Fold this protein.
Amino acid sequence: MYYDSEEEVRLAQGEVHYGQKVRRLSHGNLRRYPEILNPNGHKVGGSGVSRAHHLDHIIPISTCWEYQVPEVSASDVRNLQVIPWFVNLSRGSGIRLEQLVGWPYPRKKRAGR
């Protein structure tokens, strides 16, 4: 990625560090408060893993960064939820949930087509 100024580089690095700290604090809250955030004991894992869930930020980290929300508030239990990975991906990427049906495996073609 190319930046026009040292200020842009500094801001980009600041955003990366902010996101890392928020994620670290968020996962700490998941471990600390599983009865609130994950009462059904869903497996938290990677995208595409069967029955895996993600720890999701209701107000995205990027929005919290933009509005200078303190890391502790961005990672607060009230801003977190455990949701299926495919729902999480569909929310942030602009992909509709219907487009993820069957992912990551291609649909089987019927005979005669």
Summary: The beta strands are 53-57, 80-84. The longest strand covers residues 53-57.
